[in-house]
Amino acid sequence: MKNNDLFSYRRLRRAIGYLGIFLPVVLIVLSFFSIFDTRMQPSISDYYYTNLRDIFTGTLAATGLFMIRYKGHLNPVWWKNDQLLTNIAGFMAIGVALIPVNPEYDHLKKDTLIPFTYDWIGWVHYAFAALLFGTFSLLAINVFTIGQEHNEDIPVSTLNENNIYRFCGFSIIILMLLVPVSENLRLFKYSTLILESLALFLFGTAWLIKGRALGDEGKIGEKLYREHNVVDTEESAEKEIQK
């Protein structure tokens, strides 16, 4: 039974990871197909006002529901509490999907959940997005790095999973700080779209590694997880679920 729980957790982690990585990829690629009558947008959020809205909102809503459904381990320290942080991230993702950024033209607001052009509505969207990416980074840095077995006979590799999680988490913070900077300085075209896409790629990568999307046998198991190629037992499954 524990093995079934373990594989369910891994599948859920992979699903979250794939959704994060492929959302910007799908939106950008489909922008080049004339059938969708959508040009490439300055940010991912701006796709809400295009013919690709359903993909944008649907993917975010699915990611949010998956994260709320994901029951991680509890911890008295809130920034290490897996269940609390994933719940926050889930609600923030749904908030980003339902409360859109202010559009370029006011008339586009008429078909939104809140059909008013008040500036504060756009700031609510930004707040949701900031909390979403901030929670992503906390999960990668403080939660995903908990629980790796200390294995004396396997040295810590540069590609160890904890190094990857920390790299992804801190990089997400840096990328999000660069968004307002690049917007104000107009450093390059589509800067926000590119920075957001990179942040989602890093978020997805962390969840895929946690979900063992590359497998965990042989050299991969040793480099990433400091584990030998062993069959999962109920004891190891229980430990993995609690990580």
Summarize the structure.
This protein is mainly α and 243 residues long. Helix content is 62%, strand content 0%.
Question: Could you walk me through the main structural features you see in this protein, from its secondary elements to its overall organization?
Answer:
It is a single chain. 34% of the residues are buried. Helix 1 packs antiparallel against helix 2, helix 2 packs antiparallel against helix 3 and helix 4 (119-143) runs antiparallel to helix 5. With 243 residues, the protein is mostly helical. It has helices at residues 2-30, 53-69, 82-98, 119-143, 161-185, 191-210, 218-225, 234-242. The chain is built from eight helices and no strands. Mean pLDDT is 86; it is low at 231-235.
- What structural category arises from helix and sheet content? mainly alpha
Mean pLDDT: 86
What form results from the Cα inertia axes? elongated
What percentage of residues falls in helices of 4 or more residues?
55-70%
Strand fraction equals under 5%
**Total count of helical runs of at least 4 residues:** 8
The helix-strand sequence is: HHHHHHHH
Q: How does the major sheet shape up?
A: none
Rg estimate, integer Å: 19 Å
Provide keyphrases for this structure.
elongated, mainly alpha, 243 residues
SSE layout and pairing:
Blueprint: H1 2-30, H2 53-69, H3 82-98, H4 119-143, H5 161-185, H6 191-210, H7 218-225, H8 234-242
Helix pairs in contact: 1-2, 1-6, 1-8, 2-3, 3-4, 4-5, 4-6, 5-6
